[in-house]
From TrEMBL, chain A:
InterPro entries for the chain: AAA+_ATPase, ABC_transp_ATP-bind, ABC_transporter-like_ATP-bd, ABC_transporter-like_CS, Oligopep_ABC_C, P-loop_NTPase
GO molecular function: ATP binding; ATP hydrolysis activity
Gene3D superfamilies: P-loop containing nucleotide triphosphate hydrolases
Biological process annotations from GO: peptide transport; transmembrane transport
Name of the protein: Peptide/nickel transport system ATP-binding protein
Automatic annotation (TrEMBL), chain B:
Name this polypeptide is given: Peptide/nickel transport system permease protein
Keywords: Cell membrane, Membrane, Peptide transport, Protein transport, Transmembrane, Transmembrane helix, Transport
Residue intervals passing through the bilayer: 32-52, 100-126, 138-155, 213-239, 259-284
SUPFAM superfamilies, per database record: MetI-like
Recorded topology in the membrane: Multi-pass membrane protein
Organism the protein comes from: Palleronia salina
Top-rank lineage group of the source organism: Bacteria
Family according to the record: Belongs to the binding-protein-dependent transport system permease family.
GO biological process, one term: protein transport
GO cellular component: plasma membrane
Amino acid sequence: MSAPEDTGPGEPRPVLTVRDLSVQVATEAGAKTVLDGLSFDLRAGETLALAGESGSGKSMTALAIMGLLPKPMARISGGAIRLGDTELTSLGERVYRKIRSARVAMIFQEPMTSLNPLMTVERQICEVLLEHGAVSRSQAPKRALELLRDVRLTEPERRLSQYPHELSGGMRQRVMIAMALACDPEVLIADEPTTALDVTVQAEILDLIRTLQAEHGTAVLMITHDMGVVAEMADRVIVLRQGRQEETAPVRDLFAAPRTEYARMLLAAVPRLGAAPDRPEPADSRKIVEVDDLSVRFDIAGGVLNRTVARVHAVEGVSFHIRAGETLALVGESGCGKSTIGKALLGLVPWQGSIRIDGQQTRGRSRAAMRPVLRDIQMVFQDPGASLDARMTVGDQVVEPMVVHGLARGSELADRAEWLFQRVGLSPDMLRRYPHEFSGGQRQRICIARALSLSPKVIVADESVSALDVSVQAQVLDLMQELQAQDGLSYLFISHDMAVIEQVADRVVVMRLGQIMEEGARDAVLRDPRHPYTRRLLSAVPVPDPTRRRPDLPETSGVEEISPIFPVGQGPARVELTELSRRHRVARDAMAKT
Amino acid sequence: MSAVAEPTGGSVRRRSGAADVLRQLLRRPRAAFGLFIIAAMVFAAVFAPLIMPADPFEQSFDGLDLMGGPLPPGGDYPLGTDLLGRDLASRLILGTRTSLIIGVLANGVAVLLGAGVGITAGYFGGWTAAILMRFTDLMMAFPALLLAIVLAAIFQPSLLIVALVIAMVNWVQMSRVIYTETRSLAEREFIQVQRSIGSGPVRILFKHLLPHLLSSIIVFGTLGISTTVLLEATLSYLGVGVQPPMPSWGNIIFENQTYFSTAPWLVFFPGLLIVLLALAFNLVGDALRDILDPTLKGRH
């Protein structure tokens, strides 16, 4: 047995024991081992983190324990999983059903897709309760309400009769947790439970899991790629890499002194808030992008006559500029309008106000008239897999903008494709491959190469590194900065990740509900935040250091959920910015409070 | 040679030329079988007069038994005879012409029209979609046979007209399916990217949307072959299709269906041919779809 028996004499008996677990997946080239000899013990009340990048086999472990491996492609090829005295690997589906939820429960990454959209919250919770005979039919609704109270859902009585789409992402994840804990399981598996959530919501959910764990003594298996979450939640950590157990250590030991090279590399790549190097203050160069009083509103049609009944005020009266060679970061939580601004700059959504790209006013331009402007501004999207056409070679796609703009033809295009590939650090041998033959990081390089092909002055990077593993993320960020240094590119860097923004931004704009809350030089905004919303965002970021506890979230007053949807003719109150210093502006309402 | 240097339209694409696709088709046993059947049918249609064992129109007494019924397969008549004592094998071979033309032409026009309307409505949305799709709904609600009869009554019945009439009736389902698929494809990020680099609608439609719709088009296109052949038979039955005594597989079935219990071969053989035709196109279509999908490269 490869793993040490770490059950000491005084230790409680483990609730879950995994020994030499191997999982194989059928591929074209034959069986591929995706999990190889994993062993661990999980004790009551303990949190064990399985950390690793994509393809490390961490989710496979969860599915193997739950007996949910996709058949017949994947199977357990060796090893044992013991829950108490029950051996799970040899269990039939009927018996397994009695164990799931009742003894081992799981919460998934995407709460929207794991809840049934056609059933009310009450029915979904009651279904779990009744399935395992936890309560009688008449008692079930009462118990469901208790569970919602346990997960600290606001207005629990009302939530019972609501459908998943009426709840926010955080509320949905709370409902998922309530369902998972409905039968008081011994083991809770949390597979990236907060990855799809905003950072402030993530902080709340992590707090909740910790509190509930303390109350119930549940053992938690936390699966995550985020070392900040690991540091905050875990007692012990297993670092996985390509299905192998790279390092197993108590969390403090791992972060203080990682024993393996890979763990060291992984930890070094994690962006840490407050650790970014200084950026030279850029000279006051030419303004490349000037946005003045930009508003984007989407109509909601309804009623018998399909008339506009309401409007989503996605962006409301936003003004900013980007200078040549400068990176402006746009931060905010989902739905704050940051991506919409990026799209408006490229004319992808209808907007009002004024946008000048390198002096050219783009208001009222048709798609065709927009073309010359697009040579100066290009965009790199979030998901590199989805933003490449699966049916076209990457070489064709990289130079497609040049074909569209009639800038080159024939062999010139081929030369250009090779040159672009070299610039983003890819081998020109790969030009004739299709997107699925590349890794996530390589695909994002291809997207960057495509954006570069028109030699633009500005690139809008919309969450461009969010979907990448941390080690790859760091490389792509380096590449982007390198390109900036070479070409004097400007970036509009849209992200929700404060630590990433700190690394790349010269100036930061914090947005909320379509309006700017705070704006200024990076150090002014991130190290001396004046708006309570900025402070809340910053304090919610998990700290990748187990010895330092994340400060408690500031009170939520003033940042409660407000909908950006208004009836026709109405709109949100315009926020006005006060100048604190030459390079720092903040919303006036915040000034009144502090 | 490196395709990187290929000059046409500045493509850096690993191109699948027609010859290359054919070679790949022949490498797959099922697709090769389908191609063989299609080739055999085309051969039969073109050289029908040369390979027919007898005159398909001659109503001979030898072709009937003592009770005046049709002869079962065997002897002078390899596939038996029909109610009028005509040689079934010869009629089927000549009928290949009609059915193949109808199946390929009518279905081809229906596929082009349906896919064209669907993709246009799906991509442009708004008013374009509203008008095109309401028109499609209208066509769907209109009884197909009635429309076919009206159209056939206006124009002199001929093979071409029959094919066009059938196409007019059959494009609707295709357009619905393609419309829905285009709608969801157009929301995808790689289409957004196209807008962000300034690509025009023609480029987006043909270079980026169409390749992704190909599998649906092929599936529905091959399914349409058999329904088309049968619709032609229905039209013939109603007297607005191919005019007797000209044979088609469909009208052979319809002429003889009442004698199914006593002379099953009269329905069985043409039915078998229709199934074979549809199957052949289906096999080739499936293989084509896989060959044209780069994510499935090297798989069978």
